[in-house]
Amino acid sequence: MLKRFSVVVAALALCAPGAHADLISRGRSLYQQGCISCHGLSARGVQPYGHARGAGGVRGAGPSLVGVGALAADLYLSAGYMPLRNARQQPVRHQPLYSADDIRALVAYIGSLGGPPIPHAHPERGSLPQGLRLYTENCAGCHQMDAQGGLVIGALPPPLQSASPTQIAEAVRVGPYLMPRFPKDVLSDRQLDSIIAYVELTKHPVDRGGWGIGHIGAIPEGLVAWLLAGTVLVVLARIIGERRGE
Amino acid sequence: MIDRLIAFLVLLFARGKRRRTEPLDRLVPEAPAQRPWELVAAALLFLAMLSAAAFVPIYAIDSLGHIQTQLLGLSLGLAFAFVAAACVVFAKRLVPQETVVEPYPAPETEHEQERLGELVAESGDGLTRKRLLKFAGAGAGAALGAALLTPAASLGPFIDVAQLRKTAWRRGVRLVDDFGDPIPAKRVHVGSFLTAYPEGADHDALGSPLVVVRLRIQDLQLPEARAGWAPGGIVAYSKICTHAGCAIALYRAPLFEPTSSRPALVCPCHYSTFDPAAGGKVLFGPAGRNLPQLPLEIDGEGNLHAAGTFSGPPGPSWWGVRFR
Amino acid sequence: MIRRLVRYLDQRSGTAPLLRRALRYVFPDHWSFLLGEIALYCFVILVATGIYLTLFFDPSTAKTVYHGSYAPLHGVTVSQAYRSAVDLSFHTKAGLLMRQTHHWAADVFLVAIVLHLMRVFFTGAFRKPRDLVWYVGVAMLMLAILEGFLGYSIVDDLLSGMGLAIAYSVVMSLPVVGANIALLLWGSPFPGTSGFESRMYIAHVFVFPVLLVILITVHILSIAARHHTQFPGRGKTEGHVVGTPTFPGYVPRTLGLAFGVAAVLFLLGGLVQINPIWQWGPFETAQATNGAQPDWYLGWLIGGLRLMPGFDVSVGQYTLVPNPFWGGALFPLVVFAFLFAWPTIESRVTGDTDFHNLLDRPRDAPWRTAVGAAVFSWVAIVFFAGASDRVFVWLKISYSGQIWFFRGAAFVAPVVVFLFVRELCEELREGPQGSQGRVRIVEK
Lengths: 246, 324, 444
Hints:
Order of helices and strands of chain B: HHHEHHEEEEEEEEEEE
Radius of gyration of chain B: 38 Å
Largest interface: B-C, 89 and 104 residues
Strand content of chain B: 5-15%
Helix content of chain A: 40-55%
Oligomer: heterotrimer
Distance between the termini of chain B: 84 Å
Number of domains of chain B: 2
Number of strands of chain B: 12
Largest sheet of chain A: none
Number of strands of chain A: 0
Helix content of chain B: 25-40%
Largest sheet of chain B: 5 strands, antiparallel
CATH topology of the largest domain in chain B: Rieske Iron-sulfur Protein
CATH class of the largest domain in chain B: Mainly Beta
């Protein structure tokens, strides 16, 4: 909700060219304070062990942001992926360090360097059966059928319960860290809407059978069988096997 | 002491008929009255009755939605639980608590064992050609057993295992996606991955699915014999892991290579990791065989098709998997 | 009224004397002797709920289009087997209750068997004359594991289908003849012919249950014929068993246990979701999901498969031992061989070929306890290794780091456990009470 609101406000802000230019320049100065050490002067990127140093003398490494667009910037900043403490570490979802206004400014600045705008996600236009099929083929291998996240050698594909529809759309197009990317000719906007609709469903899975115990299959089931059923039955056996006065 | 006495009495009077008119010696010691516990048992059974009785109306109501399963389980489960509790009350408070001693049965009856042996031996006394008959009997039995087992061979082609190498891929077969549409080469971008199938073939066969990715030409390190297999850097491998047959559904596609791992195809079952740049070489995990690669060509319409067959049989290994 | 019933029965069967003896049969008292009964009652619930499920399940791989109420599957082409299982869960009243109770019963059945096996092993109850009972029991453990695997695999969902692909690969990895056997069982290369579903189904609903019923009967009758073992104590000797008679003492206890097992299983079946196949989707060879795990009693095998370093043993063109053989076939073979061979090994090594009706406290047989603990710890290490992907996701401990740790631990831990447990047993024996067992293993 807040995301959509900020996007609307940003769109309105764009209508006022003067205000927009201010936003971009504010974004530029925020960039020079916090991002330059890894993403370089004019956002052209820094190769590892390069000479660029930023505020605080941090030596980092990071890709060029020219042409990545507001889409990528919005994903990384709104999910708290950036700033990254260690350039070699996987970006993890956090509470964003920047305020919503600052994020808007930075997004405007990066967007001004060229590239795709923030996408509009419309899960309500998607089809759940198509979403299940596409999600299974393209996403479940890393993110698990119920979007509970998983393991790849070298990374942790995260659970998707906290991802907003816009962020999902952005991630699919960008392919952050080790995730593959899916441009529009691989997954059309309509197909993406279907996938997002399916992911939205996994936030409230149909748990007809009761307590979902994590939605990841046999490990929690085994824990319940041993720790819950096993304990109760052993206790019951002890009560029954106990003899009065013995 | 008391229980020994009771046990002695039990053993002494365990046999023998008693006429109905004579007072019977007790078989089971008298249990003291436990009236409060009787009420407890009755209450538990009453609660069980209520729980179980709820089952039918819960079942009958149509509009309960999801929660019906939970309520049915509660009703039946609690009913059983109350009955179980009532049984435990009976067992520990309402039924006479006895300790009985019984002898263990004799370890063996050697006399009877001998008689059995004699029985068999004497029955065969009249036979003069025991060895011949045994041999003939064994032969008949073995042959009959073999004959009876033979129809099991119809279960499957267990002699002709060569079909394990057959796939639908050969030169000119077009790659199609899950929906059956051909795949233009430009749809395969660096960093994305697609699943492809042979046009017109069974998607479910182990030899059918492919994983198609594009690498930068300078990153390719294919064996020399496969130099022409990757037009524009597009490589295709069997999607079926050579370890234990799961679909290789993970693709590691680094956005910024200097700070993360290189591209790799990973299997979610036991995490075998294969290098698409180096001909499907195993990088990590228990797979013992490289991932079979399929040579690709781009046809006149810009779509991908196979330029030959796999570099090796797809799927898990077996005795003859490395046969040429 | 009881007299009338008994008279009716006795006139028609002559069994009154037998019944009176049976009703006064003595059960030694110890809570741990009830573990096998928990397994038995789980089996009863399995058969009862299983029969219900067969009235609805369609064991066919023929394709159909799903038209039920689970939205993501709407219009999707799935097998009849999958469709009938999802429809049973969504559209049959009490269907999901029965399905889930059945699956929980299978998981708890194996928990009870393993606990029971451990009790029998560590108290030496498998010694002559009960070694046959032990062999029957270990055979039932093997059958139960296979039966459970077949049961959740016939549903043709994505998760269990991946498990079947792995089972196929393990069969293929048997040296020399693996591919022949795999093609025989599956009828054609994986996923096999439509007949394979029928084979799994008939094995699961008929062949294995009948085998289990026969073996359970032999198991129980053998125990009854020789009487149950007992711990040493006042009045309890090799010659006399002391305990509670079947009637009236034992019947309410065992009924309480039976109803208690039913209560636990039905409460779980209604309240805790298990194997939500509609969330996994139907199986397709070209699809897979992260985090796929077999049911708990096969976790030791996924650990074995994941721990092996990547190599096929091949000589020239002949692949003698494909990789899955080690973790998927040899490992369980060794463990079951150990279990089957143990009574013989123990009696040979200790020279003890006597009849035993009295049990050992585990501390009174330090060698057996230590060896058993070492082997169980080996299996446990491999078992936990199988869950290391989820441990990575939950605790962020590197996966490859865990694999190396478990590889080392699989060798080191059994040795450490053996030495530690043996020491512990000796110390406990030397404690203030001292050893009171009437029968002691003579240690070589």
